[in-house]
């Protein structure tokens, strides 16, 4: 911990506050480790997934969804029937991914599944939505990795370019409007929008 004149004078206003505010230590990425985090698969399996993902997912070639679903299942995902997966969908760890029946994943959907991502039946995840199960503790010098699962409950729609933060549950029957930043659970049958996302309509 360090103490400086800067902190003595107060950092947010142009006026001296004369409060002694200890500065926190800044992050030091040279000491970063992922702590207790486990990747959930062998290195060989992960390398195989990278190859499969590059060839069949992160490509403009419109491979049939049935093939993509079969590959996800092969790598440990639980995927239901009638699931549509467009091109450039990026799922980090399929072994931490679960989708019900008739789920749609639009182009460039990013699913960072460091923790389990569950998308229940009849959900639409539109283009460039980001389901992000990871974060870091910016108050810790070790920049500690944080992870928590995400659940999109039945019949919900996460519209284009929405960001869903770790630990969040959406719905059932709710809509996250395009570009929203969702940091807290979304109740059933509502529309949320904005940053941070707030309920604008009950359905
Ligand atoms: C929810 C949605 C459909 C707009 O709904 P809408 O009720 O027609 O919205 P309106 O155009 O009537 O706008 C109503 C108000 O909400 C605001 N608004 C609409 N969508 C918004 C959004 N995504 N984020 C923030 N504000 C939004 C508008 O600015 C307007 O504000 P104002 O009353 O102050 O002028 C749209 O926001 C959306 O998210 N669509 C999804 C698009 C998508 O993902 N498509 C995928 C490919 S098909």
Detailed description of the structure:
This protein is an alpha/beta fold and 203 residues long. The chain folds into 2 domains: 1-27, no CATH class; 32-202, 3 Solenoid (UDP N-Acetylglucosamine Acyltransferase, domain 1). The chain has 3 helices and 19 strands. The chain has helices at residues 5-9, 43-56, 65-74, and strands at residues 78-79, 84-85, 90-91, 97-99, 104-105, 110-112, 117-119, 124-125, 130-132, 134-136, 145-147, 150-152, 157-158, 163-164, 169-170, 175-176, 181-182, 190-193, 198-202. The strands form 4 sheets. The chain has a 7-stranded mixed sheet. A 5-stranded parallel sheet has the order 1-4-7-12-15, covered by helices on one side. The chain is globular, with a radius of gyration of 20 Å. 30% of the residues are buried. Bound molecules: coenzyme A.
